[in-house]
Give the backbone structure.
Amino acid sequence: MKLDTIIKINSDPNLKRYLHEHSYWYKILNRHPDMIDKMTEEMKKEYKLTFSDKIDDINGKMNLIKAFMDAIK
């Protein structure tokens, strides 16, 4: 694996954990180091770290607060 790919993986704990859980990526990254971006996208989808997931999380929290405020009245 290329050094820059290893550095990128080691700098992100989520990416490192994803690689350990999905070991088939070792072979892919050894052959095609440019696929690190594809692996990062898959990791974000699985761990729900995409922008839309964050918006949904904020929306859910706002609905919970609204329901709590309505219950207090």
Q: What stands out?
A: The chain has one domain: 3-72.
